[in-house]
Amino acid sequence: MLPAMLKSITSADATRRRGRDTREEILSCAEALWQGRGYNGFSYHHIAIQLGIRNAAIHYHFPSKENLGVALIQRYRARFAEWFVEVRKIELAWQRLHRYFDLYLDYLNAECRVCPSGILGAEFQAIPEEMRAEAKLLMGEIYDWLIETLNLGRQQGSLKFIGNAEDKAVEIGASLQGGLQIARVAGAERLHQLLAQMSLELFGENAAAVAQAA
Amino acid sequence: MLPAMLKSITSADATRRRGRDTREEILSCAEALWQGRGYNGFSYHHIAIQLGIRNAAIHYHFPSKENLGVALIQRYRARFAEWFVEVRKIELAWQRLHRYFDLYLDYLNAECRVCPSGILGAEFQAIPEEMRAEAKLLMGEIYDWLIETLNLGRQQGSLKFIGNAEDKAVEIGASLQGGLQIARVAGAERLHQLLAQMSLELFGENAAAVAQAA
DNA sequence: GTCTATATCCGGATAGAC
DNA sequence: GTCTATCCGGATATAGAC
Is domain B1-63 classified as CATH 1.10.10.60? Predict the structure, then answer.
């Protein structure tokens, strides 16, 4: 599922683009820029250069930048929904959560991106209203999934934690989000430290298996 | 120490500004904008309006925006250094850490700002080189203080955690940073949930005292 | 659906008067 | 130390040809 969660545009060949899905390419390119530099840190020009098209071509697909921003979050939410379906096929909650950890390693490895939730939180007061609404929906969906996973894990005995699942869900989501941001400044090692600590606390006897895999 | 850590400009009266320290006012105003909207989310014009001065006056004090950005982080680091000195006078490590938690509540209450570390991490690829260097220093200082505090707490028995202090320090820093960002999108309650969970895990028998204070 | 060309605005920055 | 005036580049966006 990872390739689906992290589809970036790989050196778009500017030469032949015979009527192909430019819209998707724009979104993928914009997504990378967005997670790398923030919504206020990239422009249509950046995208145009990378895809070898003109400014106006992007405006054809996304009349305003707000349209593009909203589309970015909506596509991401849709992909996340598919990811949830996929991961729910895994029986053990600790393994589901481990899959979630993997996403953050992928972000780190993919040009040191931050997670969409993180960039949305950081720039919240500086993004258009419609994007804020989408941001709330995204965070709600992740929150719900974390709660579900934690409750399952407690029931199975595959996840260890004290307190209620709701509060623990916030802690886990916040840690990963913050850890990824710290890692891009202070070095990749920080994220590895975070994941090691979280595994130690949450996975109990399974933590050793995780450690050797990494 | 909180007033020192969070000095914002309160409705600068544009009328009489008889030779007063404009430089500091600019920094305080810019700091609020920075933590609210990000480095790429505010302009000299925003500051000029709020302080009732002209664009050029800001350029007199800070020739380039990069100068201003660097000064913001340096001033913040200096204030943090003072804060560290102050907090080290507290004997119990769990109370020191609790003071650190309080900072995040203050940020949330102050127009829903995010912490400097968080905005720096999120925008890292879209800020000038000199600011990145300052960002690394800031994060290193916080990281070191957290490790010191955790080691003290373990020695005293006033903080509970498993694993090594270095990894736990990353986890704590990341949680708070991420939690604040989540709270501004999903509501203040999220930060309260996070702090409750962290108190429960770290403070042990002292957690109850914290809970009733909140 | 993509192009060229252009309009408009905004943000960072400088010159020179006071 | 702050002002007015202005320059320049960049970013969003539109018009109309192909």
Answer: yes
d(CA B203, CA A208): 26
Angstrom CA distances, A40 to A34, B94, B119, B207, stand at 8, 39, 13, 41
Alpha-carbon distances of A133 from A70, A72, A77, A122, A136, rounded to whole Å: 9, 13, 12, 15, 5
Positive or negative, the CA dihedral A45, A46, A47, A50 is positive
| B22-36 pLDDT tens trace | 999 999 999 999 999
Chain B: give the shortest CA distance to residue A122, in Å.
Answer: 6
For residue A68, give the nucleotide whose C1' atom is nearest its CA: D12
CATH class, range B70-213: mainly alpha
Q: Does A43 touch chain B (CB under 8 A)?
A: no
The structural domains of chain B, with segments of one domain joined by +, span: 1-63, 70-213
| Residues A65-122 pLDDT 10s | 999 999 999 999 999 999 999 999 999 999 999 999 999 999 999 999 999 999 999 9
Residue A7: helix, strand or coil by DSSP? coil
Find the residue in B nearest to A204 (Cα).
B162
* Subunit contact A184:B136, Cβ cutoff 8 A: no
Query: Considering the entire predicted model, what is its pTM?
Result: 0.94
- Tokens read off for B42: 């505010």
